[in-house]
Design goal:
By secondary structure, the chain is an alpha+beta fold. Helix content is about 30%, strand content about 25%. The protein has two domains: about 40-150, 60s Ribosomal Protein L30, Chain: A (2-Layer Sandwich); about 160-325, PurM-like C-terminal domain (Phosphoribosyl-aminoimidazole Synthetase, Chain A, domain 2, Alpha-Beta Complex). β13 and β14 form a beta hairpin.
Length: about 350
């Protein structure tokens, strides 16, 4: 029996196997040009309005981890998928799949966390659904959220706008979320008291820079698959290459240390409160300064640039003077992190 005959955890990683599953199973059956763009949100027209519409499911293990929980993650994840498209998030839905036997106070904590997150992000939860499955059928609690946001005229971001000479920005340190979740998995025995998930709503920060700057070409939040996967998707979708410099990529000492111990590559670790931007070279430094003036962007950095050489490649220039190709992983280093 071949390796593609059954679904495995790696099919949900956001890497090569995920893309193959989507293209071979879904795109073949649902031939719609909006779906085929495979953006974080679908851009559609409804009468005189343009909206973005997105959906996501959250199966993080454990439900609570340093700095956040599955409830905040579900709200902010959907808000961010709308925000990176340039949309103003307005409304979200919530679908709960609850395992029989889940303690009521756990559910109350998650719902309260979602309510606080909605208030902070300034979105309204307006519809939902609840299902209960038998014990052993849902690992406690799974959440699906969908979101709708208005897309203002002029907010047009996408890989097709990227050209040689553009620069790449990351809004802060990478890998915080993945390592915080890893530390919360009791069987690993990691105690990283100062490290927290970066789970946060990006819509206010993104709206600020979008209103202030022309020349933003592309935005994406590097969740599953991390920074590396986003850059690989850019290089594969546009006739360009991306060059990044290792010494400019912000990463916390604790995250880097755990990666060295466990053999993880931080470029592939999930983030839940960061945005990758590709912008015109002329605005990169000033835009980065504006990001740094906000708590959510205080560690923002210009980490690379776009080139016309070797289209499709992502090249990491290392701190010791070498270089290596960055490719998309087949699976994920750490499953069940969102």
């Amino acid at each position: 029996m071949g390796g593609d005959d059954k679904i495995i955890l790696a099919h949900g990683s956001g890497g090569k196997l995920t893309r193959r599953l989507v293209s071979d199973t879904f795109l073949k059956k649902f031939a719609h040009p909006v779906l085929a763009e495979l953006d974080d949100s679908a851009r559609v027209e409804m009468g005189a309005n343009r909206i973005c519409f997105t959906t996501d499911s959250y199966v993080v293990k454990p439900l609570f981890f340093p700095g956040s929980d599955i409830g905040k993650l579900a709200v902010y994840g959907t808000v961010n998928d709308l925000a990176v498209m340039g949309a103003e998030p307005l409304y979200i839905s919530c679908g709960l799949i609850i395992e029989e036997g889940l303690e009521r106070d756990i559910l109350e904590r998650v719902v309260e966390s979602m309510a606080q997150a909605c208030e902070i992000a300034r979105v309204s939860l307006v519809t939902g659904d609840t299902k209960v499955v038998e014990s052993g059928g849902a690992d406690g609690l799974f959440i699906n959220t969908s979101g709708v946001g208005l897309l203002p005229e002029g907010n047009e971001f996408g890989v097709e706008r990227i050209s040689a000479g553009d620069r790449v920005i990351i809004s802060g340190t990478i890998g915080d979320h993945a390592i915080a979740v890893l530390a919360a998995r009791e069987d690993l025995g990691l105690k990283l008291s100062e490290l927290k998930s970066d789970c946060a709503p990006l819509n206010h920060l993104i709206n600020r820079v979008v209103q202030q700057f022309d020349g933003i070409k592309f935005m994406r939040d590097p969740t599953r698959g991390g920074l590396a996967t986003v850059l690989c998707e850019i290089a594969e979708s546009a006739p360009i290459s991306v060059h990044i410099r290792e010494e400019t990529i912000p990463i916390r000492r604790e995250v880097n240390g755990i990666c060295e111990i466990l053999g993880f590559d931080p470029l592939y670790l999930a983030n839940e409160g960061k945005v990758v931007m590709v912008v015109a070279s002329s605005i990169a430094d000033e835009l980065c300064d504006v990001l740094r003036s906000d708590e959510l962007g205080k560690d923002a950095a210009v980490i690379g640039e776009v080139s016309s050489d070797s289209p499709g490649d992502v090249v990491l220039h290392t701190a010791i003077g070498g270089s290596r190709l960055v490719t998309m992983l087949a699976g994920d280093q750490l499953p069940r992190i969102c």
